[in-house]
Design brief:
single chain; 460 residues; alpha+beta; Immunoglobulin-like; Rossmann fold; 3 domains; six-stranded mixed beta sheet; 7 helices; 16% helix; VWA domain-containing protein; CLCR; vWFA_dom_sf; VWF_A
């Protein structure tokens, strides 16, 4: 079945200009057997040399195999081989017996395995023959034989021709060998098994390893959804990665401030399985608007699953932002190898953001005691033709004084900023060398008065 779902989402829909948000990558996979039904015949050696602990360990391994396939086919050990797959049991000694047909009942399969007793010679040819007879030639299911033996053939004809014919018909053969008292013919197992033999033949001298060997082959048959997964995520240049949380599966590293690499060795081994990776990013751009999170995202695995992720977007609100000084244009130059020094003419550069500060003082005459005064100072610039351009206005409340008589009040340090890029003198905005002509107008009036007009109240 492979990758069953891939997703990428963010935890908010809007952030401020320098805001942070969480990104979640999610991936799920299921074993291939869940989408491609497989009929499997377990062929088990019950010859005399298997008596005692070898037979007991073989039963444990075979039952583990059944459990793994049970879970891989439908995502749970529910007692039923699912998704159209089946398992059958064949055992052999002097001759072979079909202990079950191809069925789905885990209970019946395990009962057949647990009921085996050891005794007799070893007839591999009849074992293969009985296994092949269980398959329905009209079925579209994949067909697999897993044969376990602890010794050499001691009864019946050679099994190689039968095994070869089975492989030619499309049956995949796995061999598990336990090196018993009489040894085992590894070359013969390699002939029986499907290629490549390093993934279809497993041999051990230790009967306690049988459970692991059966489990490994069950996992290989069910085929994990994906192996050796690598996801390279590059976020948009308007963002930087601030932190990466440990993923639920695999490992993740920050390659640089914009790149994450997430690796998962296996996903969807025994059933539908998910994995998530969470990381945080911060907006560092200077503009508002809808921003895509992804610059790019690349996925690869051994099974060559084709996977795409959505590209979520977040609205960034930077408010009103002005950038009066753009980044300087670089001057490029190259120093040759083994060169100790270099002289570079960088050309002209100019002073940036030039301007002037106009500071004025004014004396407001004859201000009566107990009366506040409103003062307006209006600044304009005058060009060569006498036309005026507004450059600023200041409105100031002058507090009332408590002297017994009217007084002159001096108001000092009223400041205006006049950037050089507003000059109308005809000079350069990159220089303070030109003259600029200004006009200042003043308006002043009392705020407080004892006048009352019919005690009326005027609201404005």
């Amino acid at each position: 079945m492979g990758i069953t779902n891939s997703n990428k989402q963010i935890d908010v829909t809007q952030i401020d200009c320098d805001g942070t948000l969480k990104v979640t990558l999610a991936l799920s996979a299921a074993p291939d057997i869940a989408a491609n039904p497989t009929d499997i015949v377990l062929v088990l050696d019950r010859s005399g040399s298997m008596a005692g602990s070898p037979l007991a360990n073989m039963k444990v391994g075979a039952n583990t195999f059944i459990d793994i396939i049970d879970e891989a086919t439908d995502g749970a050990q529910d007692g039923t081989i699912g998704s159209g797959s089946h398992i059958g049991i064949v055992s052999f000694a002097n001759t072979a017996t079909a202990n079950t047909q191809l069925i789905t009942s885990v209970e019946t399969l395990k009962a057949a395995v647990d009921g085996l007793t050891a005794g007799g010679a070893t007839n591999h040819a009849d074992a293969f023959t009985k296994a092949i007879e269980l398959f329905d030639p009209n079925s579209s299911n994949e067909k697999v034989i897993v044969i376990f033996t602890d010794g050499k053939t001691t009864a019946g004809p050679p099994a190689a021709p039968i095994a070869t014919a089975a492989k030619d018909s499309g049956i995949v053969i796995y061999c598990i060998g336990l090196i018993g008292e009489d040894g085992i013919d590894v070359d013969t197992l390699n002939v029986w098994a499907s290629p490549p033999t390093d993934s279809h033949v497993a041999i051990t001298p230790d009967e306690e390893e049988l459970e692991k060997l059966f489990a490994d082959i069950a996992a290989d048959i069910s085929k994990p959804g994906a192996t050796n997964i690598v996801i390279d995520e590059v976020i948009h240049s308007d963002f930087v990665i601030t932190s990466v949380l440990p993923p639920s599966k695999g490992s993740a590293i920050m390659v640089d401030s914009n790149t994450i690499q997430w690796k998962i060795s296996k996903l969807g081994v025994s059933g539908n399985e998910g994995a998530t990776l969470e990381f945080f990013i911060k907006h560092i751009g200077q503009t508002s608007g809808m921003k895509q999170i992804n610059e790019s995202i690349a996925y690869s695995d051994e099974e060559k699953n084709e996977v795409t992720f959505p590209n979520p977007a977040v609205y960034v609100d930077c408010g009103i932002v002005i950038h009066p000084e753009p980044c300087p244009v670089p001057v490029e130059f190259t120093m040759e190898g083994c060169q100790d020094s270099i002289t570079v003419d960088l050309g002209d550069t100019y002073l940036e953001s030039l301007g002037r500060i106009v500071q004025v003082d004014v004396t407001v005459k004859n201000v009566c005691p107990g009366k506040r005064v409103a003062l307006a100072v209006i600044l304009t610039e005058v060009d060569s033709k006498g036309k005026e351009y507004q450059r600023g206005i200041k409105t100031i409340t002058i507090p009332a004084h408590s002297y017994p008589n009217c007084q002159d009040v001096k108001v000092k340090c009223i400041k205006f900023v006049v950037p050089e890029d507003l000059t109308v003198s005809g000079g350069s905005s990159h220089s303070l060398c030109s003259d600029r002509k200004f006009n200042v107008r003043l308006i002043a009036n009392n705020i407080d008065t004892d006048f009352r007009c019919c005690e009326s109240v005027i609201t404005m």
